[in-house]
Amino acid sequence: MSRVGVCSWSFQVSSIGELEEILPAVGTDVVALACGDPTHASWIEGDGLPAAALAAGMQIVGTMIGFDGEDYSSPATIHRTGGFSDPATREARLARLAWALERTRALGVSDLTLHVGAVPDVGDRARAGFLEVLHRAGTLAHDAGVTLCLETGSEPADVLATCLAEVASPALMVNFDPANLVGSGHGDPVEAVGILGAYIRGVHIKDALPPVSEGVWGEEVPVGSGRADIPGVLAALAAVGYTGPLCVECEGGTRDQRVSDVAAAVAFVRGSPHVRARS
Fold first, then answer.
1. In the chain, N or C: fewer CB atoms in 10 Å?
2. Listed residue (147, 167, 171) closest to 159, CA to CA
3. Residues 62, 113: contact at Cβ < 8 Å?
4. By three-state DSSP, how is residue 220 classified?
5. Is the distance from CB of 39 to CB of 68 less than 8 angstroms?
6. Does the predicted TM-score (pTM) go above 0.90?
7. How far apart are CA 254 and CA 77, in angstroms?
8. Contacts of 186 (CB under 8 A, 6+ apart)
9. Stretch 12-24: mean pLDDT, rounded?
10. How far is residue 175's CA from residue 231's CA, in Å, rounded to a whole number?
């Protein structure tokens, strides 16, 4: 089979041992692993995380970093606090990024996923500074031999594609999350694959409904029951030649419900003819 995996933070675990116990229940040992920042999806193993994860024998396909102070309670709050949006937090977050790059290499992988914040519109006075810090982040990643995979959803796909073309850093690519686009009201995920195809380096499998009113997130729902059109996304990814991992992410419900939903999503993705064709 093509590599269908899971995101470790979906399960709200705090140790590699806990994660190991869950993986058989969801049907895969392919994992996108949280870096373990003390303020975001931390691990009790601390600096011993790489050794513990590698000893566990799971297939680690990439890492994830979040930043202290990010507030996802509404689109407006994350617009202000996410990634490198706020100039006042940029230096501290670049330093934390440098730490995450080292952790990524220690885990034996070369892809690091993160939210970089909402891209300012062309003509916005904040745009030049935002693109400059993205270039600095790309340089840090390039020097470390790591690719930064920018999460979709903070803006429409064409805005993100224009930003990446303008920055022109070989270390900046995309982690494609169809539910983020639907849940933020930023467009059709199938069309977005066509726009971002050349940049897509990683994929999160998640589903959602559109927002019911302005200023709120759309609801996350089990894969296959929302408006992210996961079958269409998988077909579109195959059409643009994507062959990388497909990692199920779940950010709603109790831990037991998340395990059940992720297991069902793994089976759903594996059942796609576009995934089976690449096995």
1. C
2. 167
3. yes
4. strand
5. yes
6. yes
7. 24
8. 152, 153, 154, 155, 156, 157, 180
9. 97
10. 18
| Selection from 97, 47, 111, 28 nearest residue 67 by Cα | 97
Query: What values do phi and psi take at 210, rounded to 5?
Result: -65, 160
Going by their DSSP bridges, the two strands 207-208 and 200-205 should be labelled as unpaired
Coil vs helix vs strand at 149: strand
User: Which CATH number goes with the domain that contains 34?
Assistant: 3.20.20.150
Question: Cβ neighbours of residue 256 under 8 Å, at least 6 residues apart?
Answer: none
- CB contact at 8 A, 155 and 196: no
Average pLDDT, the chain: 95
Contact 153, 180 (CB under 8 A): yes
Tell me how long the chain is: 279
Q: Region 212-217: what's the mean pLDDT?
A: 94
Place of tokens 């939903």: 261
Which range marks the domain in which residue 34 is found? Answer: 4-276
Residues 196-213 have pLDDT tens digits of: 999 999 999 999 999 999
- What is the domain count for the chain? 1
Average pLDDT on 56-83 reads 95
